[in-house]
């Protein structure tokens, strides 16, 4: 079939790659069910690959892990995720936990006798129609809604019983077993103010519940990975460059000495709208004694192997984008994607299994463009050209973040725009990841240096390709929605159409209403409403809304807590009152992730709204 909105229903998604029994890769396989009387929904099952695809479950199964005689996974029971285990000897899966709050994560001990659980235990949230009382922040989070009043705890399951091991005033965030299985490492904030500022500490707890603080208190700590010599490897920083600070890969020896092994744009921050599920990207010890971790560099997320002495080597090709990795019987398997394919199971350069080999049509590879800016830096970008000689109408599409990137991963919606006859130009302006710390750090210059890069790149491709400079649209989501608002206000005659999706238009209201409002606003702009209100207003597109002339489609989800719906409501209302052609595409029950993991029929309706708007005004 061609590239149409209904193609989404045919896609399959691979995620959560881990080692399975007999040295075979184990992963989650997700497709889309379309019941006759109910809305379409995602269906996730466990599968393994032994030269062919083999399903291990038919019911819902996520977050798999194999240890000994069991494969563990999570499944929802009465709306709460519980832990199950599937015996390799055969038979039905057994429910391991029956906690009222369910579990939010788990780690099986090295000997398989114990399981560390991240849970809120027997806490029962108030009924949906009951009042809530809070004395902390945040009170909500995107994708989760209103947060429980009970902090997340560390429990220990052993001999069929689960009991609390660590209870703190703040959430336990991450957990890892010591190699000997005689204790656990975990991260948490020590006070509400640390939680508000994305500041964590690392701790060790023995099986007796004795907790000792190890380090931290300056910034986030991600991906604790114990080493065989009693040390720890982890990603961390101290917010030295505000919201654009890149992580450093640290090694802390058993005697407490710390050294930095590497710095970069760790984890896969390359945008895609054909992913469902998770994957290992944080540091992991390999069988060769090196640390393996995913790093985004110039539009590709690659796997890096680092010795404890700091010697680093790329171990995946730049032609593939790494979503997850696992060692299975000492062989390195990856989930990889590229410009024209979603996640595939790979080993080295070899593609072992592509779940969309039949469903996904042959897609054109975007044309890479490198624009040399007047300041001397290079902006990497891409262009998708439709069929025919042109000149083509063109959409400048802007990614979110701002600290993410476009690159070597499939963006189905951009291919859809191209198939409908629109060229698409997209790039990684300053603020994007993968080009070094100085490039990632916007330095509180939102709407300044990023605008220069975006418009400079646009002018460059208009002069290089058969594009119609009189038929240019701008669109984007989240930070891309903010920049869409900003550019149409700052350059009112530049664009023929705009789509602003889950955007920000008013920093002052964002500060109090967003789930990350206070910390994100201060880390990005260095301002608070009572200290530097003029900064927040000057950086708000709302301050310039009277200049907008561009016909604008406003897309927003009602349960978006990252960029709350008042942002879209305000922008739509102001444009409508000013007489600008505008339309509000408002989506119930969805959050900030609508375009990537929202209910399939709502995702398709969103794409069709985009196409209708572009066809009308371009």
UniProtKB/TrEMBL annotation:
GO BP annotations listed: proteolysis
InterPro entries per the UniProt record, alphabetical: 6-blade_b-propeller_TolB-like, AB_hydrolase_fold, Peptidase_S9_cat
Keywords: Hydrolase
Enzyme nomenclature, EC number: 3.4.19.1
EC top class, as a word: hydrolase
All copies of domain Peptidase S9 prolyl oligopeptidase catalytic, residue ranges: 411-618
Positions of transmembrane segments: none
Organism superkingdom: Bacteria
GO molecular function annotations of the record: omega peptidase activity; serine-type endopeptidase activity
Pfam families: Peptidase_S9
Keyword Hydrolase part of the UniProt annotation: yes
Protein name, entry field: Acylaminoacyl-peptidase
Organism encoding this protein: Meiothermus ruber (strain ATCC 35948 / DSM 1279 / VKM B-1258 / 21)
